[in-house]
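As a next step, the fold was encoded as tokens, giving this record:
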Amino acid sequence: MSQKAGLIEEAYLSNENLWPVHDVMVVDGQVVGVIKLKSGQDKPIEESRDISYWKIFKKYGFFRVLMTGVILMFLDSKVSKSELYVDYIAVSSKARGKGYGSKLLDYGEAFARQMNGIDKYTLHVIEINSKARALYERYGFVVVSTRRGGLIGSLMGINRYHHMEKELN
């Protein structure tokens, strides 16, 4: 895993609640995974929560946080009113291979099916992340387009990424 991806995972999986998340999976008192969902519908999914930027900068360093912010802005995606988008998903490196990623995807799909007007469950995956792509394909997602990362993406090690979706009909 790249250092940049490691910061995102570490920040989301830390027990300090430095970042806003939609849902966290805890097993035996340990955070094992997180999923953040985004909808194009008018009503926000999660409640707003204060973020302590000072704590984030102090813990991870200004430059690392700044670079992570650039990556997150680059990966930000417009979402249509008929889709639920997996904005972030991470499973702790110590908990991988135990089915937690599938359970998080199940949670998101169940959430999507409860929302009126949602007929697609979507996400992006970096082209070089073959393990994640294989999980998503087993789960029923298909690649509908591949996009170039552009100059900023190339600088961040993201040359291409796939837009994947799962129909919920």
Q: What stands out?
A: The longest strand covers residues 30-39. Residues 55 and 115 are 35 Å apart (CA to CA).
